[in-house]
Amino acid sequence: MRHLITFLLTFVCVASSAQDCVLLDELETKWMTRSIKVTSGGEKPDVVQFLAAFENTWNTCIMDGVLSSVKNPKFIKSGEDEYGGYIIVDRKNGYVCDDAGGSDGASMEACVWRRDNGHRLFAVEIGKPTDPMVDYVCFYDYDPKTHTMKPEERPFVGWQRVSDDSELSYSLPHTGKDFIIKEYTGENDEPYHHVFRWDGMKPVFSYITLNGKIVNPSKITIDNWTE
Questions:
Q1: Which of 39, 59, 36 is nearest to 49 (CA)?
Q2: How far apart are CA 44 and CA 48, in angstroms?
Q3: 3-state SS class at 57
Q4: Which of 3, 12, 160, 188 measures 20 to 30 Å from 19, CA to CA?
Q5: 8-38 b/e with 16+ CB inside 10 Å = b?
Q6: What span, in angstroms and rounded, lies between the C-alpha atoms of 210 and 142?
Q7: Rg for the chain (alpha carbons), in Å?
């Protein structure tokens, strides 16, 4: 009987812990509804402080690897695990990521840009390849006077993709400042790269590349795409 009670208590604790994590597909529709206070943010908080504030608010549970790693102030990058997963924490360049590797693990990356008005633009990308599949980016403006991250409209709203039937993924900059949307149409082995250049306040669409070469959007045709 004692073993049964112990098992049931363990099951309840595990289930309760799982329920505490926000559903990532629900977060995609909720993240713009709340501003986030950054504890001890000051004028120049780093990417880890932003990420910790985001996680404390939404409890995604996919930031745990990064936030656990930063307990070691010298941590920069982990070695790849058996599934090819790894963690990067680059405070200097304002970038972190946790790629679970394999075919079914959730992943995240986050970065910070310095804005010309003294604010910061924080972005966090969240992806999960299993049902329900998600891949989206949350953007926040950080005001150093109020120590608050305010949700901001994504800079690619109104941007034109190559095909309405394509799949998208997002890449935040580790080095440099370009934000990239990768569009997989099924017509080519490689995706189209939609490059958004930093203008001092936000990423702005600049050009499209395919296999490393700039392409003219008006000359792109999708003939071989089938669902």
A1: 39
A2: 12
A3: helix
A4: 3
A5: eeeeeeeeeeeeeebebeebbeebeeeebeb
A6: 34
A7: 20
Q: How many CB atoms lie within 10 A of CB 166?
A: 17
pLDDT tens digits, residue range 57-111? 999 999 999 999 998 888 988 877 766 789 999 999 999 999 877 667 789 999 9
User: Which residue ranges of the chain lie beneath pLDDT 70?
Assistant: 1-19, 82-83, 102-103, 221-227
Helix intervals (H) in the chain: 2-20, 24-30, 47-58, 64-69
The answer, yes or no, to whether the previous bond of 132 is cis (omega within 30 of 0) is: yes
User: Is-contact 63 50, C-beta < 8 A?
Assistant: no
155, 196 contact by CB (below 8 A): yes
> How large is the greatest C-alpha to C-alpha distance in the chain, in angstroms?
72
Asked whether the beta carbons of 134 and 145 are under 8 A apart, the reply is no
Q: For 66, which DSSP code?
A: H
Q: Which residue has the tokens 């970038």?
A: 95
Looking at residue 83, its amino acid is Y
